[in-house]
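hi support,

uploading two proteins for the ticket. first:
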Amino acid sequence: MKKNEFEHAPDLFRFFRNLSIKRKLTMIDLLTTTLALCVACTAFIVYERISFRRTVLRELTVTAEIIGRNSTAALAFDDGRTAEEILSALLAQKHIVSACIYKTDGQVFATYLRENAKPEFPPASADDQEIFTGDHLILTRPVLLEEDRIGTVYIKYDLQEMHARFTRYGLIALVMILASAMISFSVASRLQQMIAKPIQNLAEVAFTVSLKNDYSIRVEKKSRDEVGQLIDGFNEMLSQIQERDHALTRAQENLEKRVQERTQELMQEIFERIRVENRLRESLQEKEVLLKEIHHRVKNNLQVISSLLYLQSRKIKDAGALDMFVESQNRIRSMALIHEKLYQSEDMIHVDFAEYTRNLIGHLANSYGTQLKKVRIDTRFENVMLSIDKGIPCALIVNELVTNALKYAFPGDRDGTIRIDCAKNADNTVALTVLDDGVGLDDSFDLHRSETLGMQLIRSLTQQLKGRIDVANGCGGPDGAGGARFTITFNA
C-alpha cells in the first residue's frame, strides 16, 4: 500500500500494520482457523436446516395422506365424529399445533387442536400448499375418492424444535470455534518463533548497525528457508559495506594527505605570487612615479618653450609674425596642459576632456582677452575620457578651431557665441563639434584644398585619429544663416 493510501486506511489496518511480525503471524493463524471453522459450521448448519425442513415436510405429507385416506368414508357419509376420531390420532405428534378437514365447499368438517392452541383455521385452498412461516409449517393435501377430490386436509406444524436444535448447533459451533482458537493460539505462539525470532534478530542487528555504524556484526543463521536466505543476503551486504567502508577510509586518508600536500604547495605558490606581486607593485609604483615625472618634465619643458616664444614675441613688431608666435605658443600650451592633466590623473592614461577643455579656454582667454569680452564660449560635454594618443590631437584641433573662430568669425567687435560639444555615441565613437554663429566661411572654402597651416594641421590630426571631419557652413546663426560647424568623428 502506498504511503498516501495507508494514511487514509481504516484505523484497524494501520493498527495491524504496526504490529510485530510475531503478533501478525499469531493473528493470521487465529483468523484463518476461525474463518475456516465459521465457514464449516455455517455450511453444516445450513445443510442441517435444509435436511430438517425436507424431513419434516416429508413426514407431514405422509401423515396428511394417511388422514386423507382414513377420512374418505367419513366425508362420504358426512360422519364428522369419525373424522375427529381420526384426527385425534395426531396427539402422538406433539409438534402438530392444529389440523382440520375441509369439505369441498370450504367448510370445516372436523378439527384437531393441541392443548392451549388457538382455533385458527384459514379459508380452504383449492391448491396443495407447503408454507414455512417464522415459527410454523402449514401443509394442505387433498382427500380423494376414486380420483375425485371430496375434501382437504390442513395441518399446522410447530417449528420450535428446529429453532431449538439450531440454537444448540450454534452453541456447539461457538464452543468449537473458541476451543480451536485457543488451541490454534497456543500452537501458533510456539511455532511462530521459528519465523519471528530470526526476523526479530535480523531487525535488532540492523538497528545496532545503523546506531553504531559497526558493519562487523553478523546475524546467526539457523535455517535454510527464505528467512535463512534473507540473513545470508543481509550478512553479505554488511560484508560489502564493511569492505567499502574500509576502502573509503583509506581513500579519505589518502585524500587528506594529498590535500595537505597540495595545500602546502598552493601556500608556497601563493607566497611566491605575493612576493612577485609585491615586486611588481613596487615596480609599478616606481614606473608611475617615473611616468609622472616624465609628464611633469615634458609639461615644464613645453612651458619653457612657451615662455621663450612669449619673450621672443615681445621684440617682434610685425603683426603677422606676432600672430604666428602667439598661435605657436597656444599650441604648445595645449600640449603642455594635456601632460599636466595626465600626471594629475589616477591612471596617467586617460584625460577628462571636459575639464581639459575648460582649462584650455582659460589659457586662450589670456591670449584673446579682447575678443572674449564680446564672444562667449559655451561647452557641452558628456563624461568623455580620452587616452593620450586621442587627447593631444583633439586638444590641438580644439585650439585651432577656437582660435580661427576668435580671429575670423566675429570681425569689427561683433558679438557672438562659440560652442564646443563632445559626446560618446552608442557605437563607441566620439563626436567632437566646434560651431559658431559668426559670419561663416567663404563660399569658395574647401577644407581639403586649404593651404593655411591651421587647416593643414586639422586635416593631419584627424588622420592621426583615424576619423573623419565634416564641415557645414551657414548653420550656426540664430536665423539659420551664417556661422560654421566642424565635426570630427573617431573611435573612442
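and the second one:
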Amino acid sequence: MSALRQDSRAELAARSVLASQRTGFTALLPFLGPAFVAAVAYIDPGNYATNIQSGSEFGYKLLWVVVLANLMAMLIQNMSAKLGIATGKNLPELCREWFAPWISVVLWIVSELAAMATDIAEFLGATLALNLLVGIPMLIATLITGVVTYVILMLDRYGFRPLEIFIGALVLLIGACYGAETWFSHPAFGQVLYHSVVPWVHGSSAILLVVGVIGATVMPHVVYLHSGLTQKRVLPRNDDEKKRIYRFSIKEVIIAMSLAGLINLSMMYMAASVFHGTGHTQVANISSAYRTLTPILGPAAAAVFLTSLMASGLSSSAVGTMAGQVIMQGFVGFTIPVWIRRVATMIPTVIIVALGINPTKTLVLSQVLLSVVLPVPIVTLIYFASKPNIMGVLVNRRYVTYTAMLCAAVITLLNLLLIYETLGGPI
C-alpha cells in the first residue's frame, strides 16, 4: 500500500465517520495525528533539563507544576486546533489577512527567530544524545542529526499520514522509555499522587523552577503549527461537520497532551527518586544526569534515558522545521524548500558546537528569546478564537476566552520574571 493511499484511506475513513457509518473507538482513529505532532514540543530536550533539575533539587514537590502547565497547554492547543477546523486557515494566515502588512512582517520576523531558538535546544538535545550514547563527536553528531531530521521531513512528500504516524511512533517510544525508567527507578507513588495535586513553593530557587516549567511549557511555534495541521486535513462541508470534527479533535488533544504530561511527570519523579533520593540534589543538566544515572541504576537505564532524549530531539527538531514553513507561508505568503530551511536553522547549532560555546548558557538565552515572543501567538489566538465572524459555530464561549486570558496572563508574567532573573535581577 502506498503512502498516498494511506492518506486517501484516512480521508475516506473520516468521511465514513462523519456519515455515521463508523462508531466507537475506531471512529476516532482517522482523526488522530495533529495533536501527537504538536505534543512533541512538550517533551523536547528543554523539558528534560527543567524536569531533571526540579526533581533532583526538590524531589516530588514540584510535580503539581507539571500538571498545571499541562492543563494550560491542553487549552491553548485545543484552541489552535479549533481555529484551523473553523476557518480552514492557520493562525499566521489569519494574522496576514486581518492585520496591516507591516505588522505581519514584524510578527513573521520574531516568530522565525523563536522557531530558530527552539531548534537550537532540540538540535543540541539530539546531538548530545548521540555523543553520549555512541561516542560520536559533537560536530559530527550535529550533522547526522540534520540529515536524519531532513529524511523524516521528506515523509511529507507522501502525504500527511506517514509523517503523522512516524512522529506519533517516536512519541510512543519516548513514553515507553519512561515507562521503563519508572520500573528502574521505583518512585514512591504515594508521594507522586500527593504532590501532583498539592501545591508547594518555598524559596527563590523553587520559584525560578516553577517559572521554568510553566513559563517555557507552551512553545510559540507549535501554537502556530497546530492550526496548520488541522486546517485542511478533513474539510468540513457544513457547520454540523465542523462541530463533529472538533469533538474528535478535543478527544485527540486530551489523549496526546495527557501522554506528554505523563512523560514530563515521569521525568521529574525519576529524577526525584534516583537523584534527590540518593543525595544528588544538584543535577542541573542532561550530561550530569546521564553520568549520575549510570552508576546508580546501571548502563541499561542510562541507555534508555539517552534513547528517549534522541527520539525527543529528532522528532521535535522535525516538528520545528514544519512550524517554520507554516510561519513563513502564513505571514508573508511564500515558502522555501525544506532542505534550505533545514540547513539555515541548523547553522546556529553547528556554530555553537564548533566554537565550543557552553550549551547550557545557549539554552538559557534561547529560552529568553522564546519568552519574549510567546505572548504574540497566544494573544492573537485568543483574539481570533473569540470572534464570531471568524469562528462561526466554533467561536469560543466566554468562560473559555476568560480562562485562556488568565492562562496567557500567568504565562506572560512568569516569562517576564524569567527574563528579569536571567538578566541578573534578584528574586
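thanks. also noticed: The chain has one domain: 29-422.
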